[in-house]
Amino acid sequence: DYKFASEVIKYKKEKGYISVALKNGKKLNTRLVVGADGKNSELARRAGIKKSGWKYNQTALVCAIEHELEHNGLAWQYFLPNGPLAILPMKGKRSSIVWTEQNIYAKAVNACDKTKYSKILEARLGNFLGKFKIIGDRHSYPLELKIADRFVDDRLALVGDAAHSIHP
């Protein structure tokens, strides 16, 4: 029974198992809890696992685009002065964009309306996929490194970003 860490209200180590109480009143007893709840892992925090790292002064600007030419399943990455720009293929003539910029510039770009944002992206992306339009929402994520001082605790294993998050 998979539950999100945000549903956990009590996390108690017992002899031979771990007891987890959920907001909905359900109690689970298990021999191992796997913490896969992201870089700000609540399970790691409850286990007293500290994290260290640093911020990169960069932000990832993320959006999806629909383009007129086929990507043929190929991913592309440009290494620009302020950070990489990745074009990641999705189904059909769509791609996900992960565009790294310095924080101050990313904030200004993110504040632009969709038309201006598209023009700035087009200047970096070029036209190898033909004309494109942004589909769906735009997102931004500050980039940082976080590494747990340990990946395991009694009856707990941290995986993925719960254990370590790195600059993409």
What does the oligomeric state look like here? single chain
Task: Report the principal-axis shape.
Answer: elongated
Q: What is the rounded Rg?
A: 20 Å
Number of helices: 3
Detail the poorly predicted runs.
none
Distance between the termini: 31 Å
Tags for this model:
six-stranded antiparallel beta sheet, single chain, 49% strand, three-stranded antiparallel beta sheet, 12 strands, 168 residues, 3 helices, mainly beta
In short:
The protein is mainly beta and 168 residues long. The chain has helices at 42-46, 103-110, 114-125, and strands at 8-14, 17-22, 27-30, 33-35, 51-67, 76-80, 83-89, 94-102, 132-148, 152-153, 156-158, 164-165. It starts with 7 loop residues before the first strand and ends with a strand.
Write the layout of secondary structure elements.
Blueprint: E1 8-14, E2 17-22, E3 27-30, E4 33-35, H1 42-46, E5 51-67, E6 76-80, E7 83-89, E8 94-102, H2 103-110, H3 114-125, E9 132-148, E10 152-153, E11 156-158, E12 164-165
Parallel strand pairs: 4-11
Antiparallel strand pairs: 1-2, 2-3, 5-8, 5-9, 6-7, 7-8, 9-12, 10-11
Write a structural description:
The chain is mainly β. Helices cover 15% and strands 49% of the residues. The protein contains 3 helices and 12 strands. Strands 6-7-8-5-9-12 form a 6-stranded antiparallel β-sheet. The chain has a 3-stranded antiparallel β-sheet with strand order 1-2-3, with no helix packed on it. A 3-stranded mixed β-sheet has the order 4-11-10. A hairpin with a 2-residue loop joins strand 10 and strand 11 (156-158). It is elongated, with a radius of gyration of 20 Å. The model has no long low-confidence stretch (mean pLDDT 89).
